[in-house]
Design a protein that fits this description.
With 406 residues, this protein is of the alpha+beta class. Helix content is 39%, strand content 20%. The strands form five sheets. Strands 2-6-7-1-5 form a five-stranded antiparallel beta sheet. It has a five-stranded mixed beta sheet with strand order 10-9-8-11-12. A two-stranded antiparallel ribbon has the order 3-4. The two termini are 22 Å apart.
């Protein structure tokens, strides 16, 4: 198997000095200001004159803004993060014009992510020491894992989360260590009580970190609601809420990384369902549990890790009746309410609902991989019956996620 280089982002926590924190905070503010001003200029140009303003035009605008008295402070920070903000805006418009995303929105001082991106001309990385432009000393980084040998970061992104923690992400070229070749395949049925059930019969319990920390979160939110708007005590209370959210997210992300890495390393082919999580969140009874399961994040991890390790990720159509289909004889049950966790087919086979679904997903995925056809049930027939048919569509293979983690 040929090993290829991939772009990987290695994220670390760091502890800035007071001067570095002040410089980065100024940079974040300038990045947000430039992005919003460029977005307003581009929006006005299109609304008034039906003119599309590109990156080069906004870059020229930035030069002019720096020369004005009220915006002269833009010259006090590194110019590279400001230019990168304009490039990101250009990418957002490109996605909009190609109907891959909604129209770009303005960055909020309170809600938007605080970050700045530096290219190689705006930082120095030598002997494991990273120094950013406009700074006289390197960042105090906690190197929790080593960078690839001989790594030369192409871009560095500095950010601060809502809990006040500082992070630096280094984008490097890497050649992932390839796991041993295997011939196994596994089907995955996503659930709530069991986060995933495998076609082998194994269940991985949903850790439900959100539920475990719910009392702590509710207490912190009640304290926040009692604080006066704009007061220092409210800022402290907001940080407490943010830290609880960060604790939940960190633990859940760590669990998903370990699970998805194991699934990809142990199997050559991984088959999943193409779930529409956004629509499922409309169920008010299950919305919190579905959100806590993080199925979308798990799928994203499976996609880019399958790409790294040379594995195959196959998706089965969301309408495939995996739960109602008997994996022994192929008969589809008329109804299968959610409260039915075990059932018996007319052929005599007894099924655990989730294990049966995982086995059907695996069988359908192997068929997709073999013949290139997607499998889904026919919506309806004149006689009101349901049958299984094939529709011509290539299997959805995995794609590397932007700035993958872990």
């Amino acid at each position: 198997m040929t090993m290829t280089h991939v772009k990987r982002a290695f994220k670390y926590r760091f502890y800035p000095t007071d001067a570095q924190a002040a410089e980065l905070s100024r940079t974040f503010g300038c990045v947000r200001k430039v992005y919003n001003m460029a977005l307003q200029a581009r929006s006005e140009a299109w609304t008034l004159r039906r003119e599309r303003v590109n990156y080069n035009a906004t870059s020229a605008m930035l030069t002019g803004w720096k020369r004005t008295g009220e915006l002269s402070y833009l010259s006090e920070v590194s110019s590279v993060p400001l230019q990168q903000a304009l490039r990101h805006l250009q990418g957002a418009f490109a996605n909009f014009w190609q109907k891959r995303a909604k129209y770009p929105t303005f960055k909020s001082r309170k809600k938007s992510r605080r970050s700045a991106e530096y290219t190689s001309s705006a930082f120095r990385f030598r002997d494991g020491r990273l120094t950013l432009a406009k700074m006289d000393r390197p960042l105090d980084i906690v190197w929790s894992r080593p960078l690839p040998r001989g790594a030369a970061p192409s871009t560095v992104t500095v950010s601060q989360d809502s809990a006040g923690r500082w992070f630096v992400s280094l984008l490097c070229e890497d050649r992932p260590s390839m796991p041993a070749p295997v011939n196994t395949a596994v089907g995955i049925d996503a659930g709530i009580t069991s986060l995933v059930t495998l076609s082998t019969g194994e269940r991985i319990t949903n850790p439900r970190y959100g539920r475990k920390d719910r009392e702590r979160l509710a207490r912190a939110q009640r304290e926040l609601s009692r604080k006066t708007e704009g007061s220092a005590n409210r800022d402290k209370a907001r940080l407490k809420v943010a830290r609880v959210h960060a604790r939940i997210a960190d633990r859940h992300r760590d669990f998903l990384h370990k699970l998805t890495t194991r699934l990809v390393r142990e199997n050559q082919t991984v088959v999943i369902e193409d779930l529409t999580v956004r629509n499922m969140l409309g169920n008010r009874t299950l919305a919190r549990a579905i959100g806590d399961a993080s199925w979308t994040e798990m799928r994203s991890m499976l996609e880019y890790k399958a790409q790294w390790y040379g594995r195959d990720l196959v998706t089965v159509d969301r309408w495939f009746p995996s739960s109602k289909l008997c994996s022994a004889c192929g008969v589809i049950a008329a109804r299968m309410p959610l409260n039915v966790r075990a059932w018996e087919c007319a052929c005599g086979a007894r099924h655990d609902r989730d294990v049966n679904a995982a086995r059907n997903i695996l069988a359908a995925g192997l068929a997709v991989a073999a013949c290139g056809d997607g499998v889904r049930p026919q919506r309806s027939t004149p006689g009101g019956q349901s049958s299984v048919k094939q529709e011509t569509s290539r299997p959805q293979r995995s794609r590397a996620a932007a700035q993958p983690r872990g």
